[in-house]
Amino acid sequence: MDDLEKDSEVRHLQVDCVDRVRLDRWLSEKVSAVSRSRLQKAIRNGDVLVDGEKVSPREMVSEGRVVQIREEVLRVDTVETAIPLPQELPLDILYEDECILVLNKAPGMVVHPGNGCSGGTIVNGALHHCGELPVFDEIDRPGVIHRLDKETTGALIIAKTERAGRELMRQFHDRETRKSYLAVVQGWDLDDSGVCEGSIGRDSVRRTRMAVTENGRSARSTWEVHERCYEENWAVVQVEIETGRTHQIRVHLSNEGYPILGDSQYGFRKNRSSGQARTVSRVMLHAAEIAFDHPETGQRMVIEAPVPPDMGLYLKSNPKKN
Question: Which listed residue (149, 189, 191, 310) is catalytic?
Answer without folding.
Answer: 149
